[in-house]
Design goal:
single chain; 259 residues; alpha/beta; Elongation Factor Tu (Ef-tu), domain 3; Rossmann fold; 2 domains; 6 helices; 36% strand; binds FE2/S2 (inorganic) cluster
Length: 259
């Protein structure tokens, strides 16, 4: 895995994808080193806050040496990012985290599953998996199904919405059942209740699941300890069943997690 670096990145473009969901394309020298499921730390210009905001990488464009970040505005840092315009500069730290083990999907029926702001990193994941039998199952609250059209380039695409306005009414597991989607391996990212349900579903059907817990991160760089999660393995430093999502993950084998 490539060493992380802290570098200034140039804003190439920006936009609004859905209510409160924004995208940024950033030119950075480490773009080509990013693997699906990794994230970057984005530093707010306001020096009152020294810690970066972790944001997952939605897409890599190696030719332009660029990364696409899709994020939800949740506080002052991300609100500031939404104001950046082309040719502005922003400080980036990356690549961070381990990413999805794509080799586990070789020759298998693989399903990428996402919910809410866990959807973006699965775009690059589906892209890198094309060539395998890939289905994408994405869960949204309502008809604001951001990025869903883009999955069609790389995979069969299924949508679940809580209000039933698009696709299956219910969650991603309901969509799996309704559409009889074949599945040996799952790569998923989203809120904890969804990931818990996916772990149980994978056990039920005898599939392997790899879960990105990135929604639980705060600083993203091991400094705040806000992302501790319980694991079956004992940590070699602390000798307890703990892992830091940002430095040990964010992707874990579902079988190793106590959820
Ligand atoms: Fe701060 Fe992991 S997110 S220590």
């Amino acid at each position: 895995m490539a060493n992380k670096m802290k570098k200034e990145a140039k804003v190439l473009s920006c936009g609004l994808l859905a209510e409160g969901i924004y995208e940024l394309w950033l030119e950075t020298p480490f773009a080509k080193d990013v693997v699906p499921g990794q994230f970057v730390g984005v530093y707010p210009a306001n020096k009152a806050t020294l810690l970066p905001r972790p944001i997952s990488v939605c897409e890599v464009d190696a030719e332009r040496s660029a990364l696409r970040l899709v994020y939800r505005v949740v506080g002052s840092g991300t609100a500031e990012f939404s104001l950046y315009r082309p040719d502005d500069f922003i400080m980036l730290l990356g690549p961070l985290g381990n990413g999805f083990p794509l080799d586990k999907a070789k020759g298998k029926n693989v399903v990428v599953m996402g919910g809410g702001i866990g959807v973006p990193p699965l775009i690059e994941t589906a892209k890198k998996l094309s060539g395998e039998k890939v289905s994408a199952v994405m869960g949204y609250r309502n008809s604001e199904t951001f990025l869903s059209e883009e999955f069609k380039k790389y995979s069969d695409m299924y949508i679940a919405t809580e209000d039933g306005s698009v696709g299956t009414k219910g969650n991603v597991i309901d969509a799996m059942r309704e559409n009889n989607i074949k599945c040996d391996v799952i790569f998923a990212c989203g809120p904890m209740p969804m990931l818990r349900a996916i772990k149980a579903y994978a056990q039920e059907i005898g599939a392997k699941a790899y879960l990105s817990l990135e929604e639980r991160m705060a600083c993203g760089v091991g400094a705040c300890l806000g992302c501790i999660t319980k694991t079956k393995e004992i940590d070699e430093h602390s000798h307890v069943h703990n892992a830091r999502i940002c430095t040990d993950g964010p992707v874990f084998d579902a079988d190793d997690l106590e959820m």
